[in-house]
Amino acid sequence: MLLSALKRFLIGQPLKSAELGEQKLNKTKALAILSSDALSSVAYGPEQILIVLVTISTVALWYSIPIGVGVLVLLLALILSYRQIIFAYPHGGGAYVVSKENLGVNAGLLAGGSLLVDYILTVAVSISAGTDAITSAFPQLHPYNVDIATLLVVAITILNLRGITESASILAYPVYLFILALFILIGAGLYKGMTGAVSPDMHPSLGTPVAGITLFLLLKAFASGSSALTGVEAISNAIPNFKDPGPNNASKTLAAMGLLLAILFSGIVYLAYAYGIAPKAQETVVSQIASQTFGRNYMYYFIQGTTAMILVLAANTGYSAFPLLAVNLARDKYIARMFTIRGDRLGYSNGIIFLSIMSIILIIAFKGRTEHLIPLYAVGVFIPFTLAQTGMLVKWVREKPKGWLVKLTINLIGALISFTVMLIFFITKLGQVWPVFIFLPLIVYTFHRIKRHYEAVGEQLRITTCEPAVPIEGNVMIVPVAGITHVVENSLNYAKSLSPDQIIAVYVAFDRDTEKQFQEKWADWQPDVRLVTLHSHYRSIIQPLTKFIDTVEHKAKESNFRVTVVIPQFIPKKSWQHALHNQSSLLIRAFLLYRKDLIVTTVPYHLKK
């Protein structure tokens, strides 16, 4: 009871499935939660360029200007390319769906696996970067980086479990405050420059010769700066979260995000150059720019505070996109089906919780210093970038719709630039991104293993293709059922063998169409077994089932009957596969076992392969 009260306090009251439409986002809220990752990257993207350049000398910092222009060209190509993906695939799925449909299953899984890992890294890197911004302003907090980061992950997880609309309403304010703060910072910095308050001696002149500069180093700096473009793809994954018309609203949000990102990135790169700022271990570049522009006054702390908030809230892009991508993979049976289940507040809570756990593990493992993950984080985005653009090329060549040559050209440019940046990452940062060659094949292999397992199980359980079930030789019996399979048939045969006065099969439906379809199939398959369908507004199996059992039990007691609940369950060959299939069975058994007035029995069905 206490845990339930705590859950209601933290998460809120359950929402009905019919309220799903009210959980859609308008453009203003969508821009805040889906663009926070991309917009926040201006706090560390320019810094990554400077970190590479300063290894030669401070004179080389002027190269940040042409490198910044190159990053903006890449941004424009990606915005135009992903705009086409939004209209071509309006149901979401982004790079995973595009690659799977046009380049094949393995390409799709490679893109999907890359993005799943990338969203986990998004949370870990963003939260850690936000923590760094906090401890830059308050150096005495440096020893508590991991603790602060972990608490922030927990807080943002609870916020997302409360539902996408509620979290967006709260998170929109700090995101727009950050945009306002950066506009003020850039405006004030440019004003100081125009009024002569910034001495030309503070920075090297453009074109100053630099000894030791190489193309390799410049490409490495460009690849590092391209980390500012992480999160651009999130909107194409989350189209189902937009209010109708989804594709139109998503494309407008994408354009707004691209424009804001271009302005903020350009401003920070220019001011860092104008002030001659070099990266420091204990202070971020944005902190140094704010300090030189305003001094350590209230405006400085306003800039740092909003920067810290946006870096923390950038993690919300991962929380918005990861569950939806996981749903697409789970529907295709490449990951556990539990990721398709909506929680009390209509969000995909299993995906949210899994994402938070993995992010905390990363933060603890790297002790909050996740800057070493930024190259891995960036290359994890450019792999699906490249695959998505290539997939669109194949689509336009194959389908040749009206105006396909223009579309082909846009995606061709996007594919070439994305592929080039990806190669630069692999060549210049091999020592940091080599784990990609290990974990991505492992992830794709795991996807295939799960898919084969689901298909093998489905083949054994399918009534129309399996051999006839063997009858079991052999009060009111209640049999919870989730489908028409040999597992259910086995349990019904067991119940019939005990010669009960009545057998009641109970099916919990989450929507009326599914309920009607199941009733029709049941009438053809088991006409002699009574079926009761329960409609669950809140997607709970346990609550309506236990309420029904209570009703039946009350009536049975009046007739001196005992009630037996027969729970179907099947046993796979390998123990790790058990949880993939028996979540509902385990929950029902756990909730009913304490009832001394009930007989609860589980009927196993052993898989043969």
From TrEMBL:
It comes from the Bacteria. Keywords: Membrane, Transmembrane, Transmembrane helix. The chain crosses the membrane at residues 49-82, 103-129, 141-159, 171-191, 211-232, 253-278, 298-325, 346-366, 372-393, 405-427, 433-450. InterPro entries: AA/rel_permease1, APC_K+_Transporter. It is a multi-pass membrane protein. It is found in: Membrane. The keyword Membrane applies. Pfam families: AA_permease_2. PANTHER family: POTASSIUM TRANSPORTER KIMA. This is Amino acid permease. It comes from Paenibacillus planticolens. The lineage of its organism: Bacteria, Bacillati, Bacillota, Bacilli, Bacillales.
